[in-house]
Write a structure and sequence with these properties.
The complex is a heterodimer of chains A (about 425) and B (about 250). Chain A has about 425 residues and is α+β, with helices and mostly antiparallel strands. Chain A has six helices and 21 strands. In chain A, a hairpin with a 3-residue loop joins strand 8 (about 135-145) and strand 9. The chains are: A alpha+beta (about 425), B mainly alpha (about 250).
């Protein structure tokens, strides 16, 4: 019996070692930004990103790329999320693998937070300069105070080269040209090392002599006053005077060396200009909408009225950055990320051109695995079970019109 | 050797054991304070200490001394009350700054690649020396709180200005004016830290023009005095010995 127990113990130990070793070799890369875990209603009913363009898929260290496009601030913004009165155009990347060389909304540089208006559409651009080699998922992102990060679509971008070559040159208003990557680093090290050494000297002055037991005995027996000598007091005064002297000297020397300095810049930026969107001539009424859980498809009954002077067809339904296209009407040529592009994901019961003045009720189905993969199907568990998105209509000449839809969604479990 | 006999057989051995004990306690104190003080300071001072674009002349100057005088006050109370050792503040600050430098260099730079000139810690050494010296010379916790606590708050900004001043040089960038520290915050993307979280230059100290740092430092110094008192009592409580009577003991 003992032999069997020993063998079991040995085998268990070997198994444990093997498990630990294999765990060490299995180190998958964490590369997502949590976009799938955000509540579906938040992605569907807050910021709608469209017409996005990543200027490059591969970029060398020190080279630049841009992400540009438009975003629509949904008028039916959910009550549970604070309105975007204080928002910041961010970029979803794993740390400073790029530097953000510039970001603009409506042509205005936006290094600080901005105020956005519900129902408006804005044009944006983010200029990135490659810094750290690797494959990075680069997302658009809007942070909203009281709402959190509202992440947009992401695309993989490769940075080549070596980070050691990265430079970030700037010329200050005092005429000095610097590399912000390493600027003033020696100064930081110098002052920290100097002050740390002075502190260490004060500590060493005390720890070089017997400390805890003898001093405790002395204090307990009422001889505490004998533990601090006149020399100790002189040394302490010397340290205090040296500290104050060094502070005064370093302040004076610094002010002489940097006579022109300014406070940190802060403050909300208002008055960001939206795009003047053309008046839409297509009106859409959502009669009903259901999400078929087994089929991973959303079905809408829409009554579409064309009030314009040219026939239109429905080409795209865009929600939570997932694009469902009717391949007969629209083909993506922007290189939109595959995982959130359903090239044939939009089916319309009758998608023949809707003539001017015509009103038609159609069944529209948006189906793709993205509903499940991007956890949009979780919408049915949200506190406000409504969906929203952008519908894009196209006339014969390819002119586009954008219409919002926003309606309750009923789940179907069978 | 019986239980009633001494573990040491000579004075020389006793001194040797006592010194070994000294180093063990000092090492334990240093590392325990490094961990506890570091967590405390990261949770309360946090971003103000992490990033240069948070190190402003109003809130950083106000907040950092107030939240950092805590452990020095408590450890001073313990070391002075029990051992008449006047290095409670400096041992805390040296432990904290060592921990911070390890964190900033290995994590902020080594792991996530934020440049060190963007995420270096604040310098707390001048205030710690003054706090220790005042306690030693006065042997009074009241005077240490009032004079030392005041000094702790007042010297924080001068102790850090030579380090941050180069980063407050202005630069024109795409038609706007920034300090270099602002630009560091803008360039080196912190995905989880949107700009509106940054609490800098907020407040109502507008009647003092550009010279708000001394006013903020004085306010910080006054509150540091109060916090010193509070945390000094924590230290005393922590260092006391209780003798409990009872039948079962």
């Amino acid at each position: 019996m003992k032999t069997i127990k020993d063998k079991v113990a040995k085998l268990s130990f070997v198994a444990l070692l093997m498990a630990l070793t294999s765990a060490m070799f299995y180190t998958p890369t964490a590369s997502a930004h949590g976009e799938k875990s955000q509540a579906a209603f938040m992605r569907m009913r807050t910021i709608h990103w469209f017409d996005l363009n990543w200027s490059k898929d591969e970029v060398a260290v020190n080279d630049s790329m841009t992400i540009s496009g438009k975003f629509h601030v949904f008028a039916g913004w959910p009550e549970t999320v604070d309105k975007p009165e204080v928002s910041f155009l961010n970029i979803g990347i794993p740390g400073p693998v790029f530097i953000r060389a510039g970001s603009w909304i409506g042509g205005q540089l936006v290094p600080r937070s901005v105020s956005l208006e519900l129902g408006d559409t804005y044009e944006f651009k983010v200029l990135l300069k490659a810094r750290r080699p690797g494959d990075w998922h680069v997302h658009t992102m809007m942070n909203v105070e009281g709402g959190g990060p509202i992440i947009g679509p992401g695309k993989w971008v490769t940075i080549t080269g070596t980070m050691g070559d990265f430079v970030n040159p700037l010329t200050t208003l005092t005429g000095q040209t610097i590399d912000l990557e390493t600027y003033a680093l020696e100064n930081v090290y110098f002052w920290h090392a100097l002050w740390y050494s002075i502190g260490l000297a004060w500590l060493l002055f005390w720890v070089k002599r017997p400390m805890f037991i003898p001093r405790y005995i002395a204090v307990s027996s009422g001889k505490a006053d004998t533990l601090i000598s006149a020399t100790d007091k002189k040394v302490a005064i010397g340290f205090a005077v040296a500290t104050l002297g060094l502070l005064m000297f370093s302040m004076g020397a610094t002010n002489d060396e940097y006579p022109i300095t300014t406070p940190l810049q802060a403050g909300l930026m208002r008055g960001i200009k939206p795009i003047e969107m053309p008046e839409t001539s297509v009106s859409v009424k959502v009669e009903d909408a259901t999400y078929r859980v087994p089929g991973r498809a959303m079905q809408m009954t829409l009554t579409i009225t064309n009030n314009g002077d040219s026939a239109v067809r429905l080409g795209e339904f865009n929600t939570a950055s997932v694009r469902f296209l009717d391949a007969d009407v629209l083909e993506d040529e922007s290189g939109y990320p595959d995982d959130i592009l359903a090239e044939e994901g939009l089916t319309v019961s009758d998608n023949s051109p809707i003539a001017p003045g015509e009103s038609r009720t159609v069944e529209v189905t948006a189906s793709d695995a993205a509903w499940e993969v991007y956890r949009l199907a979780d919408l049915i568990y949200d506190p406000d079970s409504r969906f929203a998105g952008l519908l894009f209509f196209f006339d014969e000449d390819g002119n586009r019109q954008m219409t919002m839809v926003d309606a309750p969604l009923i789940p179907s479990f069978i | 050797m019986s239980a009633s006999q001494s573990a040491v057989r000579s004075r020389a051995e006793a001194v040797q054991v006592s010194r070994a004990f000294d180093w063990m306690i000092l090492f334990t104190l240093f590392t325990a304070v490094l961990g506890g003080y570091h967590i405390h300071y990261m949770l309360t001072g946090g971003d103000w200490d992490f990033w240069t674009d948070w190190k402003d002349r109003r809130l950083w100057v106000t907040v950092a001394p107030i939240v950092s005088i805590t452990f020095p006050a408590a450890v001073q109370a313990c070391l002075w009350f029990r051992y008449r050792l006047p290095f409670g503040a400096i041992v805390c600050v040296l432990a904290l700054m060592l921990g911070e430098w390890i964190n900033r260099y290995l994590n902020f730079w080594g792991w996530t690649y934020f440049p060190v000139n963007f995420c270096f810690p604040s310098n707390l050494v001048p205030g710690a020396i003054l706090l220790d010296v005042v306690l030693m010379l006065s042997s009074s916790f009241v005077l240490t709180a009032v004079v030392g606590g005041m000094a702790w708050g007042l010297v924080f900004y001068p102790g850090n200005w030579p380090i941050i001043a180069p980063l407050h040089v202005p630069v024109e960038y795409n038609g706007m004016m920034f300090t270099l520290a602002d630009l560091q915050g803008y360039h080196y993307v912190r995905t989880g830290t949107p700009e509106y979280i940054r609490m800098v230059e907020k407040g109502t100290l507008r009647t003092f023009g550009k010279d708000v740092a001394p006013v903020s430092a004085f306010f910080s110094a006054f509150v540091s005095i109060i916090i010193y008192f509070l945390w000094h009592y924590f230290g005393r409580w922590f260092a006391k010995t209780d003798f409990v009577a009872g039948e079962g003991i």
